[in-house]
Structure formats: structure tokens, C-alpha cells
Design brief:
single chain, 214 residues, mainly alpha, 10 helices
Length: 214
């Protein structure tokens, strides 16, 4: 008896499902179509992104390998174009190539390229902090105290692995300006920083013992 009831219940359930699909077949078809289109679009977009990255990588390699004095301006233009593509891999590499080969003479233009990568490119957090630090390092020879602090604030006010590097840069900056008290404060901050780079912490302690001991 129980088996018969179970079979009847099963048949009734199957009939309800069948009627539901019959009565709502248009909605079901539309829903399934959206799912298929969504999956197709997702995978197609990933394929396009991967294809674009491969092309960008090929362009970067070709530009850098063929660089010489006669192709200098073309190299600059094409590398700036790569930077403006905001690719997480090749945009920073393009900027580094320009800087390593001293191809950009204007500090203002260099900072704009740094800002393009820092503010627009979707970088991982610590990669972004590294580039901020590199920007500060570039600016440290000619920027004012306020300008340098503004650049480094995102790192200083975080728990970044680059925080001790940023503090050390500021300590050295103030020491070079004969502002010993400010330099000492930043060296001391490194000493008490929990995740400070060990080499930087050791060097900071040496500097405190050598240059600030009373």
C-alpha cells in the first residue's frame, strides 16, 4: 500500500513539473538563453583579454628589443601607449624601461606616468605600494617635504610590507636636509615596527647608534 501511494505521489509530482514547464515554457527558454549567453559572454571576454595580453606582451618585447638611438622617440611613444593600456604586467614594465634608460627627461611627465599606473591600473595592493615607493624614491631628490609625505602617506598609514622602506626613505631624506630630529623619529619608528624589513631595521639601529648617540 505504501509503495502504491509513493508511486502515485511521484506521478503527481512529475505531472506538476511537466505542467509547470508547459505553462511557463517561454519564461524557461528565455531564462536558459540568458544563462547560455552569460556563460558564452564570460568565456569570450576572457579569451579576448588573454588574446590582448599576448599581443601587448609581443609589442613590449618587440619595442624593447629593437630599441636604439635611432628608434628612441618611437620607443617612447609605444611604451607610453602600453602604459596607457593599464595592463597589470606590461604597463609597469614599460614605465621601468623608460626610467632605466632615462628616456623621459621631464619630472612632471614621469610623475604623470606613475600616476596613470598607480591610480588607474588595477594592481594588487602590495604591487601598487611598491610602485608608490618607487615614485617617492624618484621624487626624493627634488620634491619638498610635503610633496614627499603626500606620495608616501598611503604606505605610511598602512601595514604594508613596504612601510619600513618608506620610513627609511623619509629618515634619509630628513638626514640629508640636516633635520636630525625628524630623521631620528623615522629611524625609531622603524625599530618598533613589527613587520619591518630585517635589513632596514638593522641599518636603522646602526644609524641611530652612529649618528644620534649622545
Amino acid at each position: 500500500m505504501d509503495e502504491e501511494i509513493a508511486i502515485i505521489d511521484s506521478n503527481t509530482s512529475n505531472e506538476k513539473i511537466k505542467k509547470f514547464f508547459i505553462n511557463n515554457r517561454k519564461k524557461v527558454i528565455i531564462f536558459l538563453s540568458f544563462i547560455i549567453i552569460g556563460f558564452t559572454g564570460y568565456f569570450s571576454l576572457n579569451e579576448i583579454k588573454e588574446s590582448n595580453k599576448i599581443k601587448l606582451g609581443s609589442k613590449f618585447n618587440l619595442v624593447t628589443i629593437s630599441y636604439n638611438e635611432t628608434t628612441k622617440q618611437k620607443t617612447i611613444d609605444e611604451l607610453i601607449d602600453i602604459i596607457n593600456q593599464n595592463d597589470v604586467t606590461y604597463s609597469p614594465l614599460a614605465l621601468y624601461f623608460l626610467l632605466d634608460n632615462n628616456l623621459i627627461k621631464s619630472n612632471t611627465k614621469t610623475n604623470k606616468l606613475y600616476d596613470e599606473i598607480i591610480n588607474v591600473t588595477n594592481l594588487e595592493k602590495e604591487i601598487k605600494n611598491l610602485i608608490i615607493y618607487k615614485k617617492a624614491l624618484f621624487n626624493s631628490s627634488f620634491s619638498t617635504e610635503n610633496e614627499l609625505l603626500k606620495i608616501l602617506n598611503p604606505i605610511i598609514n598602512s601595514e604594508s610590507i613596504w612601510k619600513s622602506h618608506a620610513l627609511y626613505l623619509l629618515a634619509e631624506y630628513f638626514f640629508s636636509k640636516n633635520e636630525d630630529q625628524k630623521a631620528k623619529e623615522f629611524f625609531n619608528q622603524i625599530i618598533i615596527l613589527p613587520n619591518a624589513n630585517n635589513d632596514i631595521k638593522t641599518e636603522s639601529q646602526k644609524r641611530l647608534n652612529r649618528d644620534f648617540s649622545e
